[in-house]
Amino acid sequence: MKNKLFFPVAVILLLTNLLAFTATSFENKNAKAEEEIKALILKSYINGAFNDLDPEAMRAGFHPDFAIFSADGENIRKYPIATWADGVEKRKDDPEFDPAKNKWEHNFASIDVTGGSAAVKVELFHEGKHVYTDYLSLLKFESGWKIVAKVYHKH
Predict the structure, then answer these.
(1) Which of 2, 5, 78, 142 has its CA 20 to 30 A from that of 36?
(2) Domain boundaries in the chain?
(3) pTM of the prediction?
């Protein structure tokens, strides 16, 4: 009787351990991807486009075909990364620009990663006020993660 029970119990234990290992491996892979994505968004978006006004950091973290999409009546308006980065550069070079007044806080409200695709919800605050809720889409290329699109809500 003991021998008849041993095999099914051993199989169940083996499968349970295998599933636990697979789930842990998947969670670790997603956790690593989430950390890579957070670091990219912090450097290229939060600091690149807002706090530090660093167009080179923007160009490094955004795909060249990136655009901000917004509604314009029944049409879609596209604002490409090249135009945005050029505007950031001009703003930083403006003698009237005051870096002390350009500090933004952020909150990663959600990060959803599936394989080489990700969607990130970022909330941006300026002087304590919730100004934007941004939805960033990212893809993982051979060179790493890149921000490929943004839609947003201005509060």
Answers:
(1) 78
(2) 2-154
(3) 0.80
